[in-house]
Amino acid sequence: MAVGWPSSQVMTPVTRQEVLGLYRKIFRIAKKWQSASGQIEETIKEKEYIKNEAKTLFKKNKNVMDPKLIKQCIEECEARIEIGLHYNIPYPRPIHLPPMGLAHKQGRMLRHQEKLRKISKPIYLKSHDEVS
């Protein structure tokens, strides 16, 4: 449910406050989190996942300096928070991408198919493949 953040060296004070606010929000969510199943073991496991995912992604992206990438990280974090709270699942939701079976194993069609898959990936999953 989290996305890593850029260092404070390049961020404006407003951006820094926004990022730190999202980081704190994630840990408040993790503290109050209840799994959909209601089982204690599952709740503990999901709380740990939320905290570990936040720590990992924030550390990974702490040196991002491009304002567009910073904005993208913030948008991804907000999307993952909203989706997690709405569906009561902390894990990124699977998506339906165009199948790769239509393209040849090499060549222009494969590159085109890979490009379509990349641009069709929702913002809330951009960092998931990089970390998992």
From TrEMBL:
InterPro entries per UniProt: Complex1_LYR_dom, Complex1_LYR_LYRM1, LYRM1
Protein name, entry field: Complex 1 LYR protein domain-containing protein
Domain Complex 1 LYR protein residue range list: 17-81
Membership in a protein family: Belongs to the complex I LYR family.
Originating species: Mycteria americana (Wood stork)
Cellular component per GO, a single term: mitochondrion
